[in-house]
Design a protein that fits this description.
By secondary structure, the protein is an all-alpha fold. It has one domain. It is built from 7 helices and no strands. The longest helix is centred in the middle third of the chain and has 21 residues. The chain is globular. The protein starts with 5 loop residues before the first helix and ends in a 36-residue tail after the last helix.
Length: about 190
């Protein structure tokens, strides 16, 4: 994990090499599902929303902000996104991709509990895994994904395991005088 920012490298220094290897194999398994970038981000966002709802109900806003911060650091470190563009016409099951992630995260956490790893380090591992996947996208896509996750979590009709739709074209939609500002996800920082 030498390509991670210093803050992540330091946080992960207490996690065993077996855990890092499991994280790497889970990332590889997830990326093998033949999904478009938009669908891959939707599967990831659905998983993040489910994890936030199940494990971090009281602190989910802190969890999402930490995830956004770590993912942005990774995205800045990775630089170019040209390798993200896959062939057109990919088909795959978003549900399958979410299942791979949820099952893999659960197995990862169970193995860490069995080895006596502290709850703090389990949180770091979970954040690092999700941030590494999210950090493969550019900053606007990361902001859009986290905003979509928050919107889903705030919706009383959303249920764990459901898809969180990410429409990457939303981030480049030009703003006009007629647009309703309450429908627009926040962009940038003030």
């Amino acid at each position: 994990m030498s390509n991670l920012p210093d803050i992540l490298t330091d946080a992960l220094s207490h996690i065993e090499p077996q855990t890092e290897a499991r994280m790497d194999s889970l990332i590889a398994e997830f990326t093998r599902v033949p999904l478009s970038n938009e669908d891959r981000l939707s599967a990831l966002a659905g998983t993040i929303a489910t994890v936030a709802h199940i494990r971090y109900v009281r602190h989910r806003s802190v969890f999402l902000e930490a995830l956004r911060g770590w993912a942005l650091e990774i995205a800045n470190l990775l630089g170019s996104r040209s390798w993200l563009q896959g062939p057109e016409g990919l088909s795959g099951n978003i549900q399958e991709a979410q299942s791979i992630l949820m099952g893999g995260i659960d197995a990862l956490l169970r193995s860490m509990v069995a080895s006596g790893t502290t709850a703090q380090h389990r949180l770091v591992a979970e954040l690092a895994l999700l941030a590494r996947l999210l950090g493969r996208h550019d900053a606007p896509a990361i902001h859009l994904a986290i905003t979509s996750v928050k919107r889903s979590l705030d919706d009383p009709h959303w249920r764990c395991g459901e898809r969180v739709t990410i429409l990457l074209w939303e981030q480049t939609e030009p703003l006009t005088r007629e647009v309703a500002l309450e429908w627009i996800a926040p962009r940038g920082t003030a």
